[in-house]
């Protein structure tokens, strides 16, 4: 307002002139009034700059509006705009860069342009960026998506919204990937939508929205069926099967994955068949069929090794290690996890590296090396927080809690379990919660709270009964060791061990599945590793 008054040459102590001044009725109209006082070339420069954004370089300025005029004239206009407090000089090397002093100034200047003019300028700027950086466009995909999305060039909108979404997904910028995919879907042809629906579903799964992902996979399957695309139908079935497995809906998962396997075998598609076998192995393992899991994994591994697919080879080695650990073969589990981790570090996928570190940490815990295990879990958790996979973050938190429990840092274990539990509650995953409650019980038993420990173990048993997934022999042995009473209690002979009590009294202590108010539990963890 002061700049507005000063620009009219009115002295601030001139009460009569101030009283007669016709003041703008809003901030928007005030800024428009200031813009109207500029020369024609200054207005053009200001409005062209507003199309770029709040921060802009003079090089892009000519890209958005090549007819601005001579460089010297534009430079003088920019200096004048800066002297009027509308812009600020940011830097001069390697390109002269200005920014709008207030974002509302940029917004008002932009909105003063007719829609058709704005769309045309955004298109011109997009073309300029393409031509200027054609040899290395990847760093500029967000900029291209931004400008073409605001143009009338639908072909370019499709191209760059899709490419920007794929790039965002690859770097685990999940919110950006979701935004790009959702914006590109309405302008895609039916045949192009299926792949984007599957990609968007995978990002939603990563962020914990399993139901939303399932809806997208179902929509994609319907489109693939309409197009009579048998291969894509099989890939949709793969995603639906894996989505059901994560929610412990094992019967549905088996049906989807078996259908996908038949489809890939009919089409002689080895890539898809390898993935179907991989997921069928995980499903078998999760239900306690370790021989079946190992057979499926090995069959998939042979297909992956034949084509040199190292990322998936690493994934299968990791899962074979999990089966070995469940069967009590810790030396083999450690060897396989180490081999998987080496491969994954080579191709740099943060998610995969985190998973291998977590899995290796679990084996180290079993070997009694709590400190080294904690280091693995800490690094894994830091990587997964960058990725944003909430379910896996919860898993890593409870495993780190197990390491803290092993070191008898009970306060930290409680805190880690609590954070894990709060995340898990949003998923409704009974399989994960069963492990979680067993770890709660183990910590409570260590603290001498046997009754509370047994309640947790009973609740876990009820969840396992509901989904028909028992502990493996090695897992049951580990749990029994955690629940064993201190030697002084055994010497007294007056109290049975929680482990033996849990076997005798589990039916009485167990509650109906889902009836336990998990929100009131202070702690929780899970010792089973995630998979890739």
Report the biggest beta sheet as strand number plus sense, adding barrel if it closes: 3 strands, antiparallel
Question: What CATH architecture of the domain at 2-113 do you see?
Answer: Orthogonal Bundle
How far the N terminus sits from the C terminus, by CA atoms, comes to 59 Å
Q: How does the helix and strand content classify structurally?
A: mainly alpha
Mean pLDDT: 87
Give the CATH class of the domain at 2-113: Mainly Alpha
Strand ordering within the main sheet: 1-3-2
Q: What portion of residues belong to β-strands?
A: under 5%
Total number of beta strands: 3
Number of contiguous helices = 28
Rg, nearest Å: 31 Å
Oligomer: single chain
Residue share in helix: over 70%
If you had to describe this structure to a student in words, what would you say it looks like?
This protein has a domain at 2-113: Arc Repressor Mutant, subunit A (Orthogonal Bundle). It contains 28 helices and three strands. The chain has helices at 2-7, 15-20, 27-36, 40-52, 58-64, 71-83, 103-111, 115-132, 141-149, 154-170, 174-184, 190-206, 210-226, 230-246, 250-267, 270-286, 290-307, 310-326, 330-347, 350-366, 370-387, 390-406, 410-424, 430-446, 450-467, 473-483, 487-492, 498-509, and strands at residues 55-57, 87-91, 97-100. A three-stranded antiparallel β-sheet has the order 1-3-2. β2 and β3 form a beta hairpin. The longest helix has 18 residues, at 115-132. It is elongated, with a radius of gyration of 31 Å. It starts with a helix and ends in a 23-residue tail after the last helix.
